[in-house]
Amino acid sequence: MFPKILAILALCILPAFSDPHTPIEVHKAKEPTDGRYIVILKDGISRRDHINSLSRRGILSGNPSITHEWDVINGFGGSFSTSEIESLRSNPDVLSIEEDGRIYPQGGPLQ
Predict the structure, then answer these.
(1) Does residue 7 form part of some domain?
(2) How many whole angstroms separate alpha carbon 70 and alpha carbon 30?
(3) CB 68 within 8 A of CB 78
(4) Given 50, 57, 67, 73, which residue has the most CB atoms within 10 angstroms?
(5) CB of 73 within 8 A of CB of 96?
(6) What's the rounded mean pLDDT across residues 48-75?
(7) 33-43 mean pLDDT
(8) Beta strand segments in 3-104, E
(9) pLDDT of 11 strictly over 90
(10) Residue 4: is it exposed, middle or buried by C-beta count within 10 angstroms (0-12/13-18/19+)?
C-alpha cells in the first residue's frame, strides 16, 4: 500500500519541478532574410529590461545586431545566431519569433 501511495504522490509532485515552458516554433517566411528575425514579447514585459537581461545572462552573446525596436508592438528585430534563437524560443517572456523576410505588393516583385 505504501509504495503505491508514494508512486501516486511522486506523479503529483514531479511536474512542479519540471520546466512547463515548451519552446515556441519559429514562424517561417516564404523568402527569409538570412539570420534575421522579429521577436515579439508578451504583454507586460519591458522590451528594454528584457534585452538587458538577455545580455547580462550571456544569452545574447558577442555582438548581437538588434536593428529595430518598435513602440507599436512589444518586440525587436535583428540578426541572431542559431543558439541565440534557441534560447529565445525557450524564454517564457517571448510570445513569438518570426523569420524576417521579403514581402512584395500583390503583383509580385517590382521590376
Answers:
(1) no
(2) 23
(3) yes
(4) 50
(5) no
(6) 82
(7) 90
(8) 26-27, 32-41, 65-69, 75-79, 94-101
(9) no
(10) exposed
For the domain that residue 60 is a member of, what is the CATH number? Answer: 3.30.70.80
| Domain span holding position 65 | 22-101
The three cell numbers of residue 6 are 508514494
109, part of any domain: no
| Mean pLDDT estimate for the chain | 78
C-alpha cell at 55: 545580455
Q: Is 5 among the domain residues?
A: no
Half-sphere exposure (CA, 13 Å, Cβ side) for 78? Answer: 17
CA pair distance 38, 68, nearest whole angstrom: 9
Identify whether 35 is part of a domain: yes
Confidence class for position 75, pLDDT limits 50, 70, 90: very high
**Per-residue confidence band for 54, with pLDDT thresholds at 50, 70 and 90:** confident
Instruction: Pull the grid cell for residue 82.
Output: 542559431
Give the number of domains in the chain.
1
Higher-confidence position of 72 and 32: 72
> What CA–CA distance (Å, rounded) separates 98 from 111?
27
